[in-house]
Amino acid sequence: MKKEKIVNDLFKLQDLKYRDFQSRLIPDIPKEKIIGVRTPGLKKFAKALAKEEDIYNWNSDFVLFNDYYFYEEKNLKALLISIIGKNSFEFTINETKKFLPVVDNWATCDLFCPAAFSKTPDKTYAEVLSFLKSTETFTVRFGIRTLISLFTGENYFLYKPEDFNTTGDLVASIKTDQYYINMAMAWYFAELLVKHFDETIYILKDKMLSKEVHNKTIQKAVESFRISQENKAVLRKLKIY
């Protein structure tokens, strides 16, 4: 299937009010590069597209093309990687590594959740560690997002990176002025506080995070309905002024 036809089909799903809304949420992308396709419609379109033979064989004009113009083109590619590679870690990780360098906004990054990763946690965790070392903002954010999705539950204590006692310690060692990485870090630690408060609170008590990440972590955790009032009181006392 030709890339031009896919783009034309995306425009058939256009919602101009939604485009205006999206452009306010993603200020880094010029408005003219946003078509305005709602996520449910885009997911439905991706599933239908994945059934077509040339897409499924991953040799079409669209999937080989990496010079995307429209925001929705990247989102569609992210969805196709997940759908088509749902039963193949090798396919998924190879395409993920090709795709991440072109991700240039938080929304595409956070939409990209490859299905195969949850089926192969050991391999996925090893790859996530490499993503965290990247110099690319959204590759690092993607790594942290994957940790949030797959490695903050009961399995948190099963995976330990080399040279660190916990994955949390590793993430805490990331020092950057990149806003989208720092916000992902705060999200990550807030999630750990929800699920493993007693085992995570030392990161705040020991001031292992930058002031920005530290305070944003507390804010997100205090706003959560999943943390007790008692623990919220502890968190409030740890805010850095």
TrEMBL record:
It comes from Candidatus Gallitreponema excrementavium. This is DNA alkylation repair protein. InterPro entries: ARM-type_fold (IPR016024), DNA_alkylation (IPR014825). Gene3D superfamilies: 1.25.10.90. PANTHER family: ARMADILLO-TYPE FOLD, DNA ALKYLATION REPAIR PROTEIN.
